[in-house]
Amino acid sequence: MPDADTLLRRLREDERHLQALVTLAVDDLMSRPVEELVDPAWLSERLVEAMRSSASDKRTREWIRGRLDEVRQRAGKEQGTLAQRVSPQLVRAVKDLLRRPYTPDPALVRAIIDHRAMRNLIQDLLQTTLTEYARKVQEPTRGAVQALKSSPLGRSRLAQLAGAAGVAARVVGSEVERQLEGRIREFVDGAISRSIDLSVTHFCAPEHARDVADWRADSVDVVLWFPVETWRREFDKLDPEQLIDDLAELLVALANAEGFTEQLRGLLEQAVREAGGATARDFLSGSGLEEEWRPHLEALALERMRAFVATEGFEAWLRALAAD
User: Fold this and answer.
1) SS3 at position 279
2) Which of 128, 193, 197, 288 has the fewest CB atoms within 10 Å of its CB?
3) What is the pTM of this model?
4) Closest listed residue to residue 192, CA positions, set 107, 135, 127
């Protein structure tokens, strides 16, 4: 039976033993059914208990504040744009996904668009546009009178008549303009619903799906090519202190929500049932994912094991085990 010194030397100097242990551990994890790895009742209760404990602890709020401050400080030091920090391959993949044509359900689009904020926007847009157009229609008449008065005929009887007519026109025009603005308001009130109908039809029409898809994808460029400073200022507009309070209150509300533990447990139980005794390897079978990430996982685990067996604590534990 090797003594503690021999075992330590083998573990620290020959990585084949640590590698074999890591491989055994990963194989065991991948081969166990999901129902052995997850106990819905225990896990749901522990998660909710942890959330409630964190929500009632004042340190949680300070922790959130610290993380937000770190983000703001890093953003304050950054220059340039987000595009300079994001992989072009990732950007292309995201834009390709967003650029796929998609025709949404009109009922869903209407439920989103037909809102007070959207109705106010359409009202302001139509009323401002129509009122400005009505005023511009009257500009040629006023301009003609002014041109005549400033011409060589400005002191003639014709100019005087034109001036009088201009005064009358302004008086009448003011009344007409007032009535016209009232008519415009009436028209706009009835046109809002029609505008929403047209918006829904436009967004849901198959012939517009490509344009809308391009709009979604091009929005990525807008986000990426604005300076980081712009986004930092936008973040500051959210009132970081209020954001901290909101996040803390969200955590409290979620942790104390009636029936939340049972709902979480139900979701976990459903996931376990649907697994049907399958293992993690069964779930990943055919995807190629295990072959891709397993070498990286084992390399990371080996690195941590190498550092762990080199500690004095592990050495003391192994010597105590060998002594027994």
Assistant:
1) strand
2) 288
3) 0.60
4) 127
